Records
---
Amino acid sequence: MKARTFGRIMIAPAAALFLAVGTGPLVYALYASLHSFPAEADAPPVYRGIGNFTDLPADPQFMKSVGVTALVMVLAVSLQLGLGFVLALALNRVERFRGAVMSLLLIPSAIAPIVAGIAWWMLFNTRTGPVNALLGLAGVSPVEWTVKMPWALVTIVTALVWQWTPFVAVILLGGLTTIPPSVLEAARLDGARSWQLLRHVTLPYLRPFFLVAGLLMIIEMVRLYEVPFYLTQGGPGNETVLSGIYLFKLAFNFRNFGGASAMALLFVVVLSAIASLYVRLVSGKKTEGRIA
Amino acid sequence: MRSKGSWAAAIVLAGAVLFALFPVYWIVLTAFRPRGEIFSHPVHLLPSSFTLDNLRYVWLGSETSQPVLPFLGTSLIVAGVSTVLSVLLGVACAYAMGRHKAGGRAFALWILSQRFLPAIALIVPLFILFRKFALFDTYSGLILLYTTIHLPMAVWLMLGFVQGLPGELEEAALIDGASYFGAFFRVALPLLRPGIAVTSIFVFLFSWNEFLFAYQLAGDEVATITVYLPRLRSAIAELYGEIAAASLLSVLPGIAFAWVMQRYLVRGITLGGGREL
């Protein structure tokens, strides 16, 4: 048997599965996005061209969900990157117990996202939660976190920062370890102060790692579902219905499969653009891509 | 010598660990706290009395909660079977890609692109197709899904391990007359055992933690632990103790895993992001 045949046999099952459960449904989504689905169970879908797509910008709830998602994304990702950077610098500084500290820090990323929602829902509980209890010690009267704006958004962003900041820090730490000590030493001998080192040596080296971490977080935020699902349930009103949650409302509450598919394809286009950027980054220059 | 900087670093890390662990602490605390104390005013931040009641309620079931064990069992079956399947398919695929350049760069990119297909984008078509093919709310449907969505991760993790394997042993086996399959099964596979272990743990954890598909494409006949958790929340009875106890049971694999796997955790989540295509 030729090596070529062997290779084909070995990748065939995986390829078949990707076709059947990944690419196949994607093609079906394209079909569904161009049709409307009548309420009667057996009625065939009706072709309606790009109507589902043009309906989206006219749907105030859709526009609102996109706006809220963008807001949460900007807040959460900038905090994750900023705090993650501080954390990475600290991890880089301390040699002892680094492994153990990293294990503890990565627990939030390793537990189920729905439990992240549950944990913060308990912490932010108005009557029984420790957040209000601690604020009470400082003389602040109880805040109705998950049911009042803007606090509901604060709870979501807090949970996301908790879940992913250490993970971002570990990626950035991978970047810090690629900086040759000689470069830092040379800059120091030239009389650079520590903030100058940070600004002119460390940050330029970390740029690709920031990009990778940032892209991963953006993708995570676009697909976000569990945390707002449990923590605020989209409330108060529809204030925290993020785009992920609205897609399900569209599909399963309003039975608008066509509209939901159109929205899903929009996600795919946005995420593909982000992903191709990501692929270019990690498969680019060797020095740029080394993480983990 | 300890400089000012490393003290600052130590303080930052201590704060971060405290922040990372506090929610976990609160879940553990609430899980073992008597009902009266959960609702007491002012809120007790430290443990005082201890009870196994909450755990007992979710374990045995009560008027307000179903027994948790069948849900844990479902999660175990679904995550376990799909782990075996995706690791098997993943190691075969990665080996052919790494050793024989099977599929080429286009195939590699296609696999990577699957990672970026958001679950939410596939759920509507999958919902319709699953109903058409009688896969809705079945073990086979959910296992098929988990196997597929975690396969890209399995392939990319395994690819790293395949590339790290010296090829000489397999070449020697081929020269000695072994077939390609023989070289793969008898020579490469035993050497890839550490990689297979790492990959299995990842796929298992991600399947175990998955909520969206389990909730939307199953959840009645086949209901996992992540689907069980939101069910405990009701407007009438505030079952904080039970919710915490069940959450605790559901996060144990993740916590055990973080402890063992911190070296690989980032690589797994970024899908071997640092490797060349």
Note: Confidence is low (pLDDT under 50) at residues 271-277 of chain B.
---
Amino acid sequence: MAKDETNLHVDVWRGTDTGAFQAFDVPRRLNQTVLDVVTEIQRDQDPTLSYRFACRVGMCGSCAMVVNGRPRWTCRTRVSEVAGPDGALRLEPLRNFTVVKDLAVEMTRFFDKWEKAHGYFEPGARAGQDFAVVPPATAERRAADAAIECIGCGICYSACDVVAWDKDYLGPAALNRAWTLVNDVRDAGHDARLAAVSGDSGCQACHTHMSCTSFCPKALAPTYSIAGLKRAMFWHALKGVR
Amino acid sequence: MTPLLFFAQRLSAAILAFAVAVHLATILYAVRGGLTAGEILGRTHDNLAFFAFYAVFVVAVAVHAPIGLRNVVREWTPWRGATLDAALAGFALCLLALGLRAVFAVYAA
């Protein structure tokens, strides 16, 4: 297709798990993000288009979609980075999620898996005590901080092949959260957490394809976190054998 | 995959990495000037080191292959649970029996 300086040619998924792409032409604008494009379509061309966003500045992660085949935060993706010279954009809902409508996905199962992975802090006997101080310069704190910045956008989950193959697989985000808590010296739920993330649909199922790490907009490395869980699970299981 | 299966697969993989390398190197070395079946059997007969090496090789294969196959089946088909585990345990026993039989045959030949 010849270069179009004026318009973007945007194919947008319409429907649920079944549906079709609908074509829109959207004017190119300076510093335009993909989220700007979706919003312009919804406001000016088709108000029935469903999508999700909140902060628009890369803090909430709710605008994640598949853009030209790759999962991305649309608010932090400039059109100039992803559209070809022909101005073609293809927008789909995140993979591995049930589609609610058009570009909006159902995330309940995704967050249920965080709970299954014990992705919550267990204060144990410390509950009610004063703040535990873990100085930022210590190795313990750095280990806990390494993967703590996840905001649960679902990009890694969408990119993961193992989730596509095994619907019960906990997924990179939940396992990444579990690893953060395994490294939290204040947490008292390590044994139960390591047991929860171990099994056919746990950390051992990871194939180390590294798609999660490749696509994470926060530049986190869930693959490394999962490898850490495998090591921790090894020592935990040995402890159980003794 | 349970922790036990995970460890068994990693451990057997480590053994196989070594064993396959030795196996291939031995083949390349042994056949460089041509080799007959009689000459092979002449070297393996009553050779305890050969028997022990290939017995370990066979055990590692019998552990490693069914666990990997179990993962493939679980990821690509809806087959799960006790019937899958039983079928792959049977597969492991078949590999073990056939492999050890072959090793013993060339040892005792």
Note: Chain A touches chain B through twelve residues (CB under 8 Å).
